[in-house]
Write a structure and sequence with these properties.
mainly alpha
Amino acid sequence: MALETFPAPAVRPAHRRNLIFLAVLGSLLVQFLVAWQLRGQIASGYSDFSAFYTAGKIIDTGNGKHLYDLRTQAQIESTFTVRKDQTGFLPYNHAPFEALAFAPLENFSYPTAFWIWWGCNLLLGYFVLFLLRPHLAHLSAHFELAVLAPAFFFPLLVAESQGQDSVLSLLLLTICFVALVRSQPGLAGCALACIAYRPQLALPMLLILAIAAEKRGRIVAGFLLTCVCLAFMSAATVGWRGLLAYPAFLEKFVPASVQLHVRRMPNLRGLIYAAFGPHLPAHALTGMVAVISAILATATIWAWQSKSSPIDDRQLKYALLITVTALTAYHSYVHDMTILLLPLFIVWDWLAKTGLHTWNRKLLALCALLLFWLFGIVANPQLYACILLIFFGSLCWEIRMGRCSLPKVTEQAAEISR
């Protein structure tokens, strides 16, 4: 039984529906205006969506075996984008099964396809809120505020405006979260496997869950079974030779622009490269990233194995898992931080339950506010990574030690409810 320290004031149902309706309209308007400011860039094909649209065209025309042929990609992309040469185009380097989702959009012009995908991202974002509503009491009590949140979360706005797939990643991680809360580990593993188009997210999460989570065997089984199904789908799309060649394609595909833009990554790797890049060789930087990432993963496992709290803290542990994944992902840009919307919602719900009675909870609340607002005010990836690191540490401390500082009234009520 979850105890709410600050109960929400009673609101008449009709008045509540009106507030939610106005919040939805306001949220839609803000998100549309942000994308509309980039309409010229969208019309010229100069956005990240061009890579997905190119992949969809290749699949829909029956040329799946050439999906990872850079010359074929450049030729198709040059028909609708300002990137006219092979060295300047934006290639598709995600898993073959993801390209299937964009194949139907080939039947539309590029601008029309972009706006259709933009609308899909809007729906996916709101669907995330409805999935979370039954499991986060304070999000449900203040749903009109939750509906406004996507309109002011800068990484999500960037993902929508660029036509990225980060909102889809957020949805899949939310399904994984809901499945774990409902004790459906197999479904959680399936949802996690579907994020394999971004292995830098799926694999670290799977590793930690396989070590620390309850019913870890079912999670791994669901993951592997889904991966087998996705492998057959991919083979049907690009052929077995194309599928087996995909890892080699990823290994060779390290464009110079990615190396130059590492310092723009708001994660651990970007922070280390920005701080030590001018002074250390590349192999030393890679080793440093690997060692610190392993330390953070170990700290996550240590926190997951804490004793149960008087208030169920499984949701907080999942927030920690998403946070460490975003922090240690090897390749991550601003739009990839969209997945942080889930742990931010979870943390706000936790703080509403427990109150700001300790210095750590106050620090946790401050970090959550900064992570939500900072990029919209100061575009500084290194500062964002530092705050994310502090947020991670506060979550670890709250999970391990927060139960000792819960109000006595809360502890007694929790014991009675048991």
